[in-house]
Design brief:
The chain is mainly α. The chain contains 42 helices and 5 strands. The chain has a 3-stranded antiparallel β-sheet. The protein has a two-stranded parallel ribbon with strand order 1-2.
Length: 797
Amino acid sequence: DSVASAIAAALGLNFAPGEPPKQQLVNYLRQQHVLLILDNFEPLLAAAGLLLNLLATAPQTAVLATSREPLKIQAERIFRLEGLALPEDAAWATAVHADSLQLFAERAERATGRNLLTPENLPQIVALCRFVNGLPLGIELMADWTRWLSLEAIAADLQSNLLHLARAPQDVPERHRSLQAVFNYSWQLLTPDERNTLAQLSVFQGSFQLDGVRAVTNSQPANLFALIDKSLVQHHGGDYYHLHELLRTFAQSKLAEQAIEPEALQDRHARHYLARMARRTPLFFGPEPQIALQQTQAETENVLKAWQWAVERLLPTDLFPAIPALGAYWNYTGLFREGDVLLQAARRRLADWPQLQAALAAEHATLLYELTSLDAMLAAAQTCIELALQVGDELLVAYGRFRLGQYFWRTGSYANAEKELAAAYQIAQRLGQANLAGMIARSQAANAWRQANLATAEQLALHSVELHQQANDIRSLSRTHYFLAILKKEQQALAESRTYAEPIVEVAQNIGDRLLEVSVIGFLGHIATYEGRYEQALAYLTRQRQLSEENGRLYDLASVLSNTGDLWLRLGQFERCAPFYQQSLELLRQLNIKQAQSNVLAHMGHLAGMQGEWENGRFLCEEALELAQAESAIREIAFAHIFLGHNLCGLGEWLAAQTAYEQALADWTKLGDTSRQLEAMAGQVRVLMALGKYAEAETAVALLHAQLPNHDLHGANDPVRLFLTCYGLALLVEGNSSATPWLQQGAAWLYKRADALTDPAIRETFLNAIPSHRALQRHRAALDKMDITPDQHSAPE
């Protein structure tokens, strides 16, 4: 009757004596077209029968009821009220219109008389609204406090004090004056079992699932569902649930009241999530690793909380089996810094468990390799081996020696790398660890490649493919395919290289391997550069740089900066080129990777030579050569020698240039890079011409001429220089008729690539800034006589 009387009062209806108020209300509404709005109905759920009667007998009456829980009648349709809309991005033009920010601005202006929603304050206001997840009461409380506190002060005290922030207006019900009051009111409406469940749910961080609720809280699902109905727990898609951070803080304060031991609750939480991670290990190293990755990403906060608690509580038996999966997660997501910090803390705390220490050190060495922290990686790998031998864990010995081999490979100690990798491979094979053996075989292949043993490298890589196929590990298989793509590119087999590389991008995206995606995108940029598709190459490299910056991997960033510099150099954009090289070199010096430093310095020397700064170019190339020789890096030694030869030619030091070209030719021959072999041979021809040794020069050109029809000069740094050299010799020795084909081939190569450039400024520098290209332009008259124009570029038969 009290509900009926309240509705009647709102309608201005006076009840007559005698007949029950409910019946009089029904009779009145039967002929009315009315919308009844009933706010905060949850204390009156017992009166839901009255509403059902009204709906049945008064068809033109509609009821809108707000309640913390459903009315539980068939006629109801539930609309869950979430927080107010938050900005999707930080752009002022769009963010300023978000409902949450508009509410804050309105309430803050009432409180202070000033407009606080300005571009300068936008980031802080967005952060405040996000913290309360758009909750109107939370927004109003924060806005009300702007009369006394700055936005910075409110943000600083938000985490600990927001529940207790209150407002003074007397026209606001007591239960709406603070979030603490709101939550206390809701708490009083719960059953004892629901209170117990809510208090225990405070142990979860972020999203959680029903099986976690069962395992950690020992509560019945019905209690969780009741909390959802009462708007205290949010149900997300995919069987995931969420407790608002503010409500979680409130619920945590009720643990003592519910006689719940926090440490025991945290132990159950840690054991549950670490066991889940351990069960994901086969998934991470199987055909569908994205499943394990998606599951882990959905509950990352709980997994990391579980790990940190288990480390603090010294729970080695729970930590040990979770290590491989957690390491795989860090590798997939590129969160190497996060993993580094957590593993360092774990290794310090858990020093009394040698087997666990060995496993932690093995995983730590993996992350340190990715972070290029090579000294720390060496120490971790050695610790792993020492402790694994101490406890007799052969598998961990294999992992330790594998990582030690990788360390030696990265630092250019190829003989030591070969020794450690071979030992690790033997153990992996003996233990039947096909996947580990496949990873080791891939590293052995890379080690052989660096020593110019190309046939051995390919054989080992194909063996790695077989092992990964046997283990059904798609991620490791894709990484070996990527290595094979690199190998084919170095052999100038670009079509085969693309066949390996292009499918990997989609695979990497599907399985969530961002690091592999970044690497292969950059690699495809290399291929596009080699094939003269320069603008497509630039798009690839721009995307690679964006992803590298997001991942925070300095080595990847240094590589893409260097590669972008190489591309601008090929396009004659010297002013753009130099800063990329300099930034890359600074990062590589910071990382202390001398082999890669050598590569950048050599190309900087090439740039200097292109600009006629031959003395500086020689200095840079000699520095590059010294670093490369210290690392026994054949490829980098070859680059340093060929660019040194170019600069020595510019200085007129012909005999020294001849020696540099001879050494470059020997190294490029070892590496199987035929395009650069031909460039080195052309350098020798140039020297012989300068020394007046035309007969020897003709012999060298004959060798060049014999090989050129079989090569597209993919990867050559300056093919036009090669053609002009041969043209110049033929012109001196045999006359114009013999020289013309060389000039024609150079023009065909040049204009084919120039015509693919759509940016006029870049096309201009490509044709005229590069010395060899500019020299070819000076032969326009000869080109006209051959009826070759920039629009007619097919080479003669």
